[in-house]
Design brief:
31% helix; D-Maltodextrin-Binding Protein, domain 2; Fructose-1,6-Bisphosphatase, Chain A, domain 1; 7-stranded mixed beta sheet; 2 domains; single chain; 7 helices; alpha+beta; globular; 3-stranded antiparallel beta sheet
Length: 253
């Protein structure tokens, strides 16, 4: 079933959702907090409503799971072979703080693997998209842009602006001890994975919590660009539609 989903259709939905978020971005938006103390705004909810309705109209037979919808129990979704996984605004803190590094994220999961993904940063006008077998793109330019020919001499590491854990700091310090030059870039939202996909960064260590919807769309971009997302400590691929939607720690490389 996943072959019927068109990348162009999903990018258009993401663009329209991005326009909705920008309308809220240009004015003061009130912030509420969920049970886990993560922030949510009217922009998250408006973009989510649009995305879910648009996907339901375009692909009524494909179920969807979104950060902003009521949680669907595992007993119901465990038999889903194919489904959409959505984060209407990843980087809500960036959005609230009027940093441009927030994204609209729509992924198609098939057999636990993200096979199509769209990451749109509306304030930056950056559209990352990918489909299994078709490649990965930034604004229609194929990824990766460049490759690091001498990683033992120089590495660029991307890390979270808001969630830089002690474990991540230690990981980066270990890299510095074994590499001649390590450049650190701090950036928000799922753009961190996308920077590895473009080749602008070599590594993204995430040794702190994320949820499946935080990573799925950008993970598809990473895979289609020829890179990988591996669980920290096991080197097994990161998979989706787990009983617990919390991701293990991972490395993007």
């Amino acid at each position: 079933m996943h072959s019927i989903v068109e990348r162009k259709v999903i990018t258009e939905i993401a663009q329209k959702a991005g326009a909705i978020t920008l309308a809220w971005y240009q004015k003061e938006v009130s912030v509420a907090y969920k049970a886990d103390q993560s922030p949510v705004t009217a922009a998250d909810l408006a973009a989510n409503q649009f995305i879910c309705q648009a996907l339901g109209k375009a692909y009524p037979d494909i179920p969807l799971l979104s950060e902003e919808n009521k949680t669907i129990p595992y007993c119901e979704r465990r038999d889903w072979q194919t489904f959409f996984l959505i984060d209407p605004i990843d980087g809500t803190k960036e959005f609230i703080n009027h940093s441009d590094q927030f994204t609209v994220n729509i992924a198609l999961i098939h057999g636990g693997v993200p096979v199509l993904g769209v990451v749109y940063a509306p304030a930056l006008k950056e559209m990352y998209s990918a489909c299994q077998g078709q490649g990965a793109f930034k604004n229609d330019r194929r990824l990766p842009f460049k490759k690091n020919a001498n990683p033992e001499q120089s590495l660029t590491v991307v890390a979270s602006k808001n969630h830089l854990s002690v474990e991540t700091e230690h990981f980066i310090q270990d890299l510095m001890d074994g590499t001649e030059k390590v450049t650190l870039k701090a950036i928000g939202s799922s753009l961190k994975l996308c920077l590895v996909a473009t080749g602008e960064a070599d590594l993204y260590p995430r040794l702190s919590p994320t949820m499946e919807w935080d990573t799925a769309a950008a993970h598809a971009v990473v895979l289609a660009a020829g890179k990988q997302v591996l669980q920290y400590g096991t080197d097994e691929p990161l998979v989706y539609n787990k009983a617990d939607l919390l991701n293990p720690w991972f490395i993007v490389q």
